[in-house]
Automatic annotation (TrEMBL), chains A, B:
Protein name: DNA-binding transcriptional regulator, LysR family
Annotated GO MF terms: DNA-binding transcription factor activity; transcription cis-regulatory region binding
CDD domains linked to this entry: PBP2_CbbR_RubisCO_like
Alphabetized Pfam families for the sequence: HTH_1, LysR_substrate
Length: 304, 304
DNA sequence: ATATGATATAAGCATAACCTTATTATACAT
DNA sequence: ATGTATAATAAGGTTATGCTTATATCATAT
């Protein structure tokens, strides 16, 4: 079993390049005997002479020439490796693995775009799933970070809110309530609500709200995408409750209106979530900081 | 400056492959803390976490995945290198650099062929030059071995004879002396001799011989190849003195005859020569031994 | 709660690695 | 012959490497 040292290879490489022990010693800031010893050890390890002294000149043996090729190649690899790791250390390179819940898909790409713009060279893998799937990915350590509206209670999880997530009641523009203000919550009992599937964060927030106000509402169609609800509301099938962030386009183009109901918007928060104790890559860490410090501001700006 | 150890890489490779410190410890016949420490040192050297513990499972970080690629590649190279050097150690591979003087070209290829046949995988570089050029190549350490009829006096040179080198007098088959036996040396004074250039080993051996017998001979054409002399002798321009080994074909086909002169053949020797202190490669060493032990026998066999 | 499986940490020890200075050996140039 | 350049060898000392055993920690399965 060959027990060589990187040090030995390195010293050998220098000697082979200079064809001189003394020059190599100079280059490596060593004394000449130190170099002699390293070479001797290397030769002993390998069991072949690598260099030969003929007269004043030092020559490589055939084995030496062979080893020289390998040692240069290995040195190159180590150097490449160092560069690669240095890049990872900084922000020049790196991959951000992130999952977001369906609703967050309306703003997360925008934030990611900003982030990537700032840190060229960072690549992003964005996965959009429902809350349950995102939690599983967290548990399986498949992602660095997640964005969701309702972090799990799990002790194994770190979460921090970074942006408000106002839930609003949306209606088609021709809905009678659109003209009213300070609509009492009880008034909504007469309406039909199109809702997300149970298990959805939005759905449970909604239910908690109405339960707190002791109002029973009528549920119409139940679906697992916010998009479907928006379409249905536009078609006059009922009202919807959803994150303000998901309907900005429809508001701008007056396809939907927000009802001015008392107690609304329900203020929830967006959370950035990761497994506790997870050693975040520098990229993941940077994105987390980015969310905490700049996301809210950026979203406000983009509304203008 | 990255100061990693091959040991660290090796241990890391094992951990990364098993995704378990304990399994790696088993594989390497170490205790688990020993593995932990190697990994820790590696991480400290690099400045990045390579592995992360989440719950019960051990995962690679991005940096870990990157390093894993490199460490496998480096391990592969080291393994290749070991194979290559082992081959050199044995006779499975290797290169023999040899130069022979012009005259030796009549038998050296035959011996080299035998040698190569025995050691498949050995490659040979054969150079044929005059004595002076061969000596220069020795001095410049461009060759492992040389074959010549007259080794230099130089103290820096090791030489050993391995085969007789009989010099004979050749004549065209129709020459009157062909029928005579025990021709006295003095009789040759009446003939014309075609000779090699001065400086040639054959030439000087010849001159020493005639000087010793106090016979002055007539020199005809002087040339620097034995081949030219053979042609000229066949053409009836005179007699020649040359190594028996160079005229075997012509004798067999009766294009030339050997004269039965008293004192002939002059017995010289072929020498295998190398720089003193040169560390011969295993191949070169093997060929040297081959010459010393088997060359003479093989040449006799080939004559039959 | 408790046990289990996995890794981290601590303390200690033998020895191997690595380098130094001083000296010797060798070949070459003057 | 003498001096110079180069590498080998010897002796000695500090450091760091690489283990081990024992113990702590932590998450999870029971």
């Amino acid at each position: 079993m060959l027990h060589l040292t990187l040090r030995q290879l390195k010293v050998f490489e220098s000697v082979a390049r200079h064809l001189s022990y003394s020059r190599a010693a100079d280059e490596l800031h060593l004394t000449q005997p130190a170099v002699s010893m390293q070479i001797k050890q290397l030769e002993d390890n390998i069991g072949l002479p690598l260099l030969e002294q003929l007269g004043k000149r030092t020559h490589l043996t055939e084995a030496g020439r062979e080893l020289y090729q390998y040692s240069r190649s290995i040195a190159q690899q180590l150097s490449d490796m160092e560069v690669a790791l240095d890049e990872l250390k900084g922000m020049e390179r790196g991959k951000l693995n992130i999952s977001v819940v369906t609703t967050a898909n309306y703003f997360a790409p925008h934030l990611l775009a900003k982030f990537c713009q700032r840190y060229q060279g960072v690549t992003v893998s964005l996965n959009v799933s429902n809350r349950e799937a995102v939690l599983k990915q967290l548990a399986d350590n498949l992602i660095d970070l997640a964005i969701m509206g309702q972090p799990p209670e799990n002790l194994d999880i770190d979460s921090e809110s970074f942006m408000e997530n106002p839930l609003v009641v949306v209606a088609p523009p021709d809905h009678p309530l659109c003209k009213e203000r300070f609509i009492p919550v009880k008034r909504l009992a007469k309406e039909i609500f199109l809702v997300r599937e149970s298990g959805s964060g939005t759905r449970s927030a909604m239910e908690r709200f109405f339960a707190a106000h002791k109002v029973a509402i009528n549920k119409g169609m139940e679906t697992d995408t916010t998009e479907a609800i928006k379409q249905a509301v536009q078609a006059g099938m009922g009202l919807g409750i959803m994150s303000l962030h998901t309907v900005e386009l429809e508001l701008e183009t007056s396809r939907l209106k927000i009802l001015n109901v008392q107690g609304f918007p329900i203020v929830r928060y967006w959370y950035v979530v990761n497994r506790k104790n997870k050693r975040l890559s520098s990229v993941a860490n940077a994105f987390r900081e980015f969310l905490l410090t700049e996301a809210e501001k950026l979203m406000l700006e983009s509304k203008k």
